[in-house]
Amino acid sequence: MKLLSAVLLAAVGVLSGCDRPTAPLVEFPVRVTPWTAPVQYRFWWTLTEACAGRQGDMGAVRWFLWPESGPILLEGKRYDGYWWQDGSRILLSQEFTDDGQVVRHEMLHQLLQVEGHPAAYFDGQCAGIVSGTGVPSAASADPALVTRARDVGPEVLSISLSTLPARPRASANDGWFVLDVQATNPTPDPIRVRLDPFFDSYMGLGFLNDDPTRTGTFDVVKEEWLFFAPGQRRHRYFDLRERAPVTLTVRGTISRAVSKSFTVVVDP
């Protein structure tokens, strides 16, 4: 089963997802390796199309791998992925080829055909589906709601889970599927949820596995207080892989708050 560790998720936050909105374009590096996208990328492409509300031809994308282990180094900066509009080229670090958040981030650039990071997409419609830019959770909220938000603990939130596809199959998408962990503010008031610390960061959405032989994970975020408007839902896609039929029992989490058990049945 493919599980992203909390340490790895923290590393994603340290490395730049791709080009900064105001940075100049860099030249396409010569010493990269042409690469064929794996089967699950078609599935991830449809997820990105759905959140973006755009459709595109994934076949037009040319994929490349950075030839060395570690981050991509371009003009003295480190990246885990990078998109070039010219030639529809996506370059990935070898360590992040199976990281759906990173791959879908670059796919979103291709669908939008923009080099920057429009907040409405990267931190709005596709938040939790692609790696975002790290803007504060209240950045695009109504200031009137933000000023009257109550400070609460994560136990106030309603946590739920679902899978995409609804009934995963080990024989489809090379065994890959998504566990979608969702946290909703069930109150009529705006709230600020205080997250539990994790080293110099905080514990965001995640999941636990009831099977002691399997582990879960959680998103590592830099923001201590997470803003929710009344009824607002936030979610996080976790990309999992099962190559054989299995039944899993998992629980969604956000910091110390834990949901009821959720059963995932992976068919042959």
Integer-rounded radius of gyration: 19 Å
User: In the CATH scheme, what's the topology name of the largest domain?
Assistant: Immunoglobulin-like
The appropriate CATH architecture of the largest domain is Sandwich
- The helicity comes to 10-25%
User: How many independent structural domains?
Assistant: 2
Question: SSE string, helix = H, strand = E?
Answer: HEHEEEEEHHHEEEEEEEEEEE
Average pLDDT figure:
91
- What is the CATH class name of the largest domain? Mainly Beta
**What global shape is seen?**
globular
CATH level-four homologous superfamily name of the largest domain: Intracellular proteinase inhibitor BsuPI
Terminal Cα span: 15 Å
Low-confidence stretches: 1-16, 19-24
How many E strands?
17
Number of helices: 5
Strand percentage, roughly? 25-35%
Helix/sheet category: alpha+beta
Largest sheet: 5 strands, antiparallel
Describe this structure in words.
18% of the residues lie in helices and 34% in strands. Strands 11, 12, 13, 16 and 17 form a 5-stranded antiparallel β-sheet that branches. The two termini are 15 Å apart. It is globular. The chain contains 5 helices and 17 strands. It has helices at 6-14, 40-52, 100-112, 119-125, 143-147; strands at 33-35, 62-65, 72-74, 77-79, 81-84, 89-92, 150-152, 158-164, 176-184, 191-194, 197-198, 201-209, 217-221, 225-228, 233-241, 246-254, 257-266. The protein is α+β, with helices and mostly antiparallel strands and 268 residues long.
